[in-house]
Amino acid sequence: xxxxxxxxxxxxxxxxxxxxxxxxxxxxxxxxxxxxxxxxxxxxxxxxxxxxxxxxxxxxxxxxxxxxxxxxxxxxxxxxxxxxxxxxxxxxxxxxxxxxxxxxxxxxxxxxxxxxxxxxxxxxxxxxxxxxxxxxxxxxxxxxxxxxxxxxxxxxxxxxxxxxxxxxxxxxxxxxxxxxxxxxxxxx
Length: 188
What we know:
- By secondary structure, the chain is mainly beta.
- It has a single domain, classed as Porin, CATH 2.40.160.
- It has one helix and nine strands.
- It has one helix spanning 3-17; strands spanning 28-45, 51-70, 75-84, 89-92, 95-114, 117-136, 140-159, 162-171, 177-187.
- The longest helix has 15 residues, at 3-17.
- It is elongated, with a radius of gyration of 23 Å.
- 27% of the residues are buried.
């Protein structure tokens, strides 16, 4: 057998002998950050009982952390975080409405990994706060808060101790808040 062929076969055998767990982190604690777009939909009340429909998107971000248990077939875990849905605004001549929704969430997470690629789903709750104001023909401020259901799905790519993720989350805040984001987390 010639020398370059031996070298190539030896390298292939050594790489094949590495377990897939070396390509990605096992379960454990993690922290991360994501950014994306939030789609905020709510009704803003006016002085005469009129309602202004608010349906806007805005850049958003979140920080999160959690713990994952890496079981043979699935990964199970818990995740908590803070999310800022931006400051969307909308209006027409003579009227403007602005909102500042934020929240703290707690998720149950379940997923599956195939090598360095994984899919996951989340179900949980968000304690949210919504500050807002209108100006123009109606000048008022409003403040509301509550706790509502949230759910999400996502995909991740694992590289050593880093996980790159893309997610969609839906929160039942008012008429609905959705967030699409990409981010990274570090598993330690």
